Amino acid sequence: MQSMKAPLLYLNHSRGWGGLEMFSLNLFKWLSNRDWPIYFSCEKASRLHQALQQTPYADRVFARKTIKYFDPISLPIITTLLKKKTIHLIHTFKSSDIFFSAAAASLAGASKPLLVHHLQMLPKHPRKDPLHRLAYGHLNKLLAITSQIAERAKTLWPINPAIVSTLYYGIDPTLYGKQLHDPAQQKARFGIPSSSRTLGIVGQVCEIKGQLLVLRAFKELSKEFPDLFLVIAGAPAPGSESYQKELEAYAAAHAIQDRVKFCGFVPEIPELMACLDFFVLGSKAEPFGLVVLEAMASGALVVASAAGGVPEIITHAEDGLLYEAQNLNDLINTLKNALTLSAPKRQKIIENAYQTVCSRFSLSVFLERLETIYREMLQHK
User: Fold this and answer.
1) Helices vs. strands in the chain: H and E counts, helices first
2) Contact 353/319 with Cβ under 8 angstroms?
3) Residue 70 sits in which domain range?
4) Same structural domain for residues 177 and 163?
5) CA-to-CA distance for 86 and 108, rounded, in angstroms?
6) This prediction's pTM
7) Do 221 and 147 belong together in one domain?
């Protein structure tokens, strides 16, 4: 039986900067703060590397320029690290790193560590060729962020279904809420009319996130609800600058630009969420929907597309409202339903939403579950 908090290695050689990279960064900080001896191997000079260097645990970070899948130069360096630090478990976040971790673990000899992969995207294609079978066959645990992703992986990946577990993301609900961030003050801060009922969509501005769908629905609803105001927060995704311009042009063409606020990238999500009476998710596809949890914890009534993992979070009419993804008429009708709910019914849904976050999707629940998985694996190593 190994130590309950044996040394771990996080492996994320992504060159990008988004949810996958931020999640691995935050997990590294959270568990390091809980006294787990975690080391991190990342891509040199990446945004992730820069962020890791700003943590109190920068001395545990190892960065190199790597080659996707197999890197003959970095491989012996990582293998030496595994032996020197007595690494008992490698946790990967990017699927191409599975190949790298499997090769390094095999070269570690008798001290071969266990392999865990965190799957955050819905698999689309089978990966049962000999190369994937060889690499994925080394996995000891696959953690999927939704049941939908877990079931798809069991079908498309060459793995033993018994190693697959669903592990939902979590947030700290104590950071959110109108009792912490006064709505009137935050509306003034973000330039939102104080007397408005505010509808918001938060996320990267790109076609898959559905901002245009929400804007079209708002255009129709604005005729019936003159106090309604729309906030669109988020920076354009790389290559989506023209989509941002399309949104702005649409608002101007339909004379609603004075009732729409384009905030750009907003780092202060709890403060922004406190401004919202209603939150809408317009996504065509959504692997999980972390922003949905943030809205639920903030006291906004959530109207979300029934896409991806979102129905695993929201129970329709109990802790939020769901509509058919990409269906404009259904979105309009669902938003109209939200806008005309009685005050007691609306408050009940909001209270239920907060309880859902606390009981099923809190950061403490997530971390305790992950630590339990680590401990159980290490005990049987």
Assistant:
1) 14, 13
2) yes
3) 8-170+362-379
4) no
5) 10
6) 0.91
7) no
